[in-house]
Amino acid sequence: MSRQTSRPANDLNQRLDLMNNIRTNHLPNAGNTIKKKIDKMPAILTDIQLKNLDNHKYSSEGSTILDPLFQPYWKWLLCQIPLSIAPNLLTIVGLILNIVTSMLFMIYSPNGDQELPRWVFFSCAFGLFFYQSLDAIDGKQARRTNSSSPLGELFDHGCDAISTIFVTVSFAIGMELGKDPWIMFSMVIIGMSAFYTAHWQTYITGCLKFGSIDVTEAQATIYLIYLWNSIIGSSIWLYKLPILNLELRYVPFIVAFFGSVSSILSNIKTISKGGKGKNGSSVADSSIVFPIFPLFLFVFLAFSIASKSQTVYLDNKCLYLVTFGIVWAKITIKLIVAHMTKGEIFLLDSCLIGPILLLLNQYFSYIIPEIIVLCFCLILATIDLIKYCSKVCYQICTHMNIYLFKITPVSSPVNKGH
């Protein structure tokens, strides 16, 4: 009897020993391997930029209409989060869920012209609301745990940039704007441009300005529309307005378009008044105009490639917009980094290799099927963005002696190899 009962116990002990062995020997080695690879990558931030980052302080102005209404809910949610949870961990979890639920739109409607199942709308509404909630409390969690740092601000804005891609593309899909390819294209590009110009003016003035109607209101409108579609259905958006003879689904697009244009013009007006640097220059004492050129180059490449080809965009709308969205995210995150480290802006970047390959393939009469080149561009741009973000975060963590997804203990020194 004792022999029979000892076997399961021995088996369990062996399994536990095996698991502990994996944790102690294999997982750290895997982590150390990644750290070593990142450490060997060429430095992105200079010593001067890292020192400038030490002196950086977050500055913002303005409050949106809905922010005060959401504050009680955000405060309640914050109290449910354990003090051991790092702020950046909240941000990245929200972003991942937002991306996953947004990708459901792209799976069920690759060209943004098909009606979506109701549960997909509900999933995306939840994903966006969840992201908005965690994005709103990550800064509060940082102050609550005394772990505020410039890295948190950079990580937050970087995740916002990536989220913008999937939110704008999925919203266009939800409104079935793929039936009008260039309306879908313009909506996504104008949304990205509005986000870019907001951080452009921050690079000039040193202060992020919020309007009465801003990101919170835009996100709330989107997930309320999704929630409506999940309960009532999306057929109402096909209703034609009597006098204008315009389908109702164009109304959100028109509101979003003019709202984004208004935001862009407001940012440009602020920029035109001069910056925080010497003689009205940027925070880096550089030109206040030059940051527009990387955006112009991006828009030019995105439009020229899409308009010249008969298939690469029209047959792969979502894939095309996400690919160029990843390219745009790298350009935008570099602008945010330049603001926080008082660095310069450069026109050319490795993220443009993919679009240039598409352009060359068109020039040489499509020697490679465009869909293959487009997929390669997506992979290339994604790897390039991940490498850039990983190195920047690693440099900041090492310099400031902090962790990315873990709260640094105050009482004990931290190993700088993050």
Description:
There is one protein chain. This protein has 418 residues and is mainly alpha-helical. The protein is built from 13 helices and four strands. The protein has helices spanning 2-40, 47-54, 67-80, 87-108, 118-144, 150-174, 181-205, 215-231, 250-272, 292-308, 317-341, 353-363, 370-400; strands at 60-61, 208-209, 240-241, 246-247. It has a two-stranded parallel sheet with strand order 1-2. The chain has a two-stranded antiparallel ribbon with strand order 3-4. Strand 3 (240-241) and strand 4 form a beta hairpin. It is globular and about 60 Å long. Residues 1-9, 22-27 and 410-418 have low confidence and may be disordered.
Judged by helices, strands and strand pairing, the structural class is: mainly alpha
How many distinct helices?
A: 13
Poorly predicted sequence stretches spanning 5 or more consecutive residues: 1-9, 22-27, 410-418
Q: What is the makeup of the main sheet?
A: 2 strands, parallel
User: Which of globular, elongated, flat, extended, rod-shaped describes the shape?
Assistant: globular
Q: Determine the fraction of residues in helical runs and give it as a percent range.
A: 55-70%
Report the average pLDDT across residues.
88
Radius of gyration: 24 Å
Biggest sheet, spatial arrangement of strands: 1-2
Distance between the first and last residues' Cα: 51 Å
Beta percentage is under 5%
The total count of strands amounts to 4
Order of helices and strands: HHEHHHHHEHEEHHHHH
Write the layout of secondary structure elements.
Layout: H1 2-40, H2 47-54, E1 60-61, H3 67-80, H4 87-108, H5 118-144, H6 150-174, H7 181-205, E2 208-209, H8 215-231, E3 240-241, E4 246-247, H9 250-272, H10 292-308, H11 317-341, H12 353-363, H13 370-400
Parallel strand pairs: 1-2
Antiparallel strand pairs: 3-4
Helix pairs in contact: 3-5, 4-5, 4-6, 5-6, 5-8, 6-7, 6-11, 7-9, 7-11, 10-11, 10-12, 11-13, 12-13
